[in-house]
Design goal:
The complex is a heterodimer of chains A (about 350) and B (about 425). In chain A, about 25% of the residues lie in helices and about 35% in strands. Chain A contains eight helices and 20 strands. The two termini of chain B are about 45 Å apart. In chain B, a hairpin with a 5-residue loop joins strand 1 and strand 2. The chains are: A alpha+beta (about 350), B mainly alpha (about 425).
């Protein structure tokens, strides 16, 4: 059985609320069946608008959305059969947990005994058996969230949309819910479109992540690729921590380039630059730079330690390096007695392929 | 005993409860002093008048005090045959005293309430009593007029003996105590109060329904529109609040009268013939229209305040789960607005059953309410005790409605703002 690669398809979708500003610009996006895809981006980047268009609460200004091969722009929300989890749970406060879950089954006229089975199954899936008679107000935030997830799945939709469902929970609960949702997705194989502005949430849960900015998908790829190989400086800066050097390409050959900074030159991996003389922003992950490297590295420079912050499992070191006073290093807490003290001069090295020369923006 | 064994002590050995009370006392006094002016105000303007009203409505001391000896003598009378000489003598003694104080007219008015025909025979008795000889008052009084020899009239006097009476309440329901002491209704063509009560309930009910039907969409619009427009709409809703009630009622008179703007418009579009303009004022229609308009904000505001708290994502959730817009509204949105509906309906209904000015001005004969009758007795007949009795009946009606509401919907389930 082949998986439908275009289970959900956004085709040239534009969206404007006021006729002046495009919130979503010419969106192209294919979502495969069974995939967990996350729309990630800062607020105002158009990700929630995309989700609302998919759910049917907003209509595309231009373009078409396909679900399972069918254009859905003219189908009202209640006929789309898409499950949805809302930011503030949106549980019906005047109904018990059971009635909340029974709502989608009742409107579908599913017989009571069958509905009861489905409700039991959905509640056990989120480990809330025995809570059926409670009112939502008697549940904690995490429990309400689980009910909301169970309710969105109880009528066996093929597609579930989640709009920042964990935003209101505290950190620990959020993390455990992330795993729970991920496991539910894996066990029932439903397609999930998840919206968040929390990058660690996106990295933890998704098969693929679409990074939104300015109404456009900046990059659509798996979490590791997104982190390791950002294609532009927005993604590089938005996902994870990032050290940057701004300069000009002075030489380019054999998949390597030389970038001239204000008072030094570094080796980098040309991603968005093609020719000599282009402006560029070089992006380097903090954990890719080492102090006093033993192996030979093609970048080796001296820097002065400006600040040392203890973080438990690692120590963050801020270094003034090559005219960048905000250069951050992460040193694992294992470890060799490196001479990390405020004011010390140290040697820092990294490989040129980890230093990605991106657009200058 | 168990509480003593479980008593928790503070570190100083004082019982915790005592210590807590001591610590809280200052705050309690402060809080009390803050509300004291209001409490005082309420007692003066609310508790005291209502208490006075209650007292007035059942107070019947006037006659009791005017004929003290008579009633004392009547204690031994079985009420079957005419009373004996002792009662007549006592009555004569009381009566002479009243004549000296020139209060016999009041007595005749009071007794006339109980039974028609006392006015003239008391007048006659006053004239005749000047020539009465000592002794055998029974014969002399009975000789003044044949009604004085009628046992019915003596029974009527006896009925006024108690200091308190529920008569006014019976009268408010078109009932009275007849000669045999039974509670009966007055003849059909003399019943006015029952019609008024029923009409009051009817008008209040329909005004509430109309207000609800009109306010629900307005409140929904107010709660969902963007701030820019909802503020403007809110001002439109509140504008009537800032206009004098009389002005608004008067403007309805201009609109609704037979040569008024609404009728002109109907004639203009050919809905009615010029010589057959419908009467929209000085009847129930007038009361309905004007009261609905005036009471509308009292429905809109509680509804709005409840709807404002309902997250729009709930309706979306209802739809995304497969409910049609109507199902989502009926199963999700509507039940959540019930506290507002309850508050609004209760408020409008209670205000409507006590409404006075508007029905008095535009209601005409068929559109007046019980409150107009109360005002009539306050100002025209000066029968304050009857007015008080009806006022209290109205008040207890409101309390009954409140109680019913509490039973059916639950008073916790109400939200006024």
């Amino acid at each position: 059985m082949s998986v439908n690669k275009e289970f959900v398809k956004f085709e040239n979708v534009d969206k404007s609320y006021d006729g002046k500003v495009l919130v979503v610009k010419d969106l192209q996006l294919d979502i495969a069946e069974g995939e967990f895809i996350t729309m990630l981006g800062p607020s105002g980047s158009g990700k929630t608008t995309c989700l609302m268009m998919l759910a049917g609460f907003e209509t595309p200004t231009n373009g078409e959305i396909y679900l399972g091969g069918k254009a859905i722009s003219s189908i009202p929300p209640h006929k789309r059969g898409i499950g949805m989890v809302f930011q503030n749970y949106a549980l019906f406060p005047h109904m018990t947990v059971y009635e909340n879950l029974a709502f989608p089954l009742r409107v579908r006229k599913i017989p009571k005994d069958e509905a009861d089975k489905k409700i039991d199954k959905a509640l056990s899936m989120v480990s809330l058996q025995g809570f059926a008679a409670r009112m939502p107000g008697q549940l904690s935030g995490g429990q309400q969230q689980r009910v909301a997830v169970a309710r969105s799945l109880v009528f066996d939709p093929q597609l579930v949309l989640m709009d920042e469902p964990l935003g209101a929970l505290d950190k620990n609960l959020r993390e455990s819910m992330q795993y729970e949702i991920k496991h539910i997705h894996e066990s029932i194989g439903v397609t999930v479109v998840y919206v968040t502005h929390d990058q660690s949430e996106a990295l933890t849960m998704s098969n693929r992540i679409a990074v939104f900015n300015d109404g456009k998908v900046q990059q659509l790829s798996s979490p590791d690729e997104l982190y390791e190989k950002p294609v532009n400086s927005f993604v590089a800066e938005f996902i994870g921590e990032n050290n940057t050097f701004t300069g000009e390409v002075s030489e380019i050959s054999n998949g390597k380039c030389k970038v001239k900074l204000a008072n030094a030159e570094i080796m980098a991996n040309p991603i968005s630059v093609k020719s000599k003389g282009e402006r560029t922003k070089v992006s380097l992950r903090p954990e890719r730079a080492l102090i006093n490297p033993k192996d030979k590295m093609d970048n080796l420079h001296n820097g002065k330690i400006e600040e040392v912050i203890y973080h438990g499992d690692h120590t963050r070191v801020r270094i003034n390096l090559l005219g960048n006073p905000e250069f951050i290093l992460k040193v694992p807490n294992s470890s060799a007695n490196l001479d990390i003290k405020l004011g010390n001069e140290i040697k820092i090295g990294w490989n040129s392929e980890d230093a990605r020369a991106l657009d200058p923006k | 005993m168990s509480s003593e064994t479980k008593q928790i002590l503070t570190t100083d050995g004082i019982p915790l409860e005592v210590s807590l009370k001591k610590a809280e006392r200052k705050n309690k006094i402060k809080a009390f002093l803050l509300v004291a002016p209001l409490l005082f105000f309420l007692i003066i303007t609310y508790v005291f008048p209502i208490g006075d009203m209650l007292f007035r409505s059942v107070d019947d001391k006037m006659v009791t005090q005017m004929l003290p000896k008579t009633f004392k003598a009547m204690e031994n009378w079985d009420g079957q045959d005419l009373p004996d000489e002792e009662v007549f003598a006592a009555f004569h003694e009381d009566f002479i005293k009243l004549v000296e104080d020139k209060r016999e007219g009041k007595l005749s008015t009071q007794l006339n309430y109980t039974k028609n025909g006392f006015k003239s025979i008391i007048k006659k008795l006053r004239r005749a009593s000047k020539k009465f000889e000592e002794g055998n008052y029974k014969e002399q009084i009975m000789a003044v007029h044949k009604r004085w020899a009628d046992v019915e009239y003596w029974r009527a006097i006896q009925r006024r003996a108690p200091e308190f009476t529920g008569q006014k309440y019976l009268k408010g329901m078109d009932m009275y105590v007849n000669e045999e002491g039974k509670i009966v209704s007055v003849e059909e063509d003399r019943r006015i109060h029952r019609v008024l009560w029923l009409r009051t309930l009817e008008i209040a009910f329909f005004v509430t329904v109309f207000c609800f039907l009109m306010a629900y969409p307005i409140a929904h619009l107010l709660a969902t529109l963007p701030m820019k427009y909802s503020n403007l709409l809110m001002i439109c809703v509140l504008l009537p609040f800032w206009t004098s009630l009389l002005v608004r009622t008067a403007s309805w008179m201009i609109l609704l009268q037979q040569q008024g703007i609404v009728n002109d418009f109907f004639v203009g579009i050919g809905l009615v013939a010029d010589d057959n303009r419908p009467e929209m004022m000085y009847n129930k229609t007038g009361s309905y229209v004007a009261m609905t308009q005036i009471l509308l904000p009292f429905m809109v505001l509680p509804l709005y305040s409840v709807m404002k708290t309902i997250s729009p994502s709930l309706m979306r959730a209802g739809k995304s789960l497969g409910g049609t817009p109507f199902v989502a509204f009926w199963k999700v949105y509507f039940p959540l607005t019930i506290p507002g509906i309850g508050a609004g309906c209760l408020l409008v209904f209670i205000l409507a059953i006590g409404y006075y000015i508007t029905p008095a001005l535009v209601g005409g004969a068929s559109g007046t309410l019980i409150s107009n009758q109360i005002a009539f007795h306050m100002k025209s007949t000066l029968d304050w005790s009857f007015a008080s009795a009806m006022g209290l009946m109205l008040l207890s009606g409101v309390l009954v409605i409140y109680w019913l509401y509490n039973k059916i919907v639950g008073i916790d389930n109400i939200k006024l703002g």
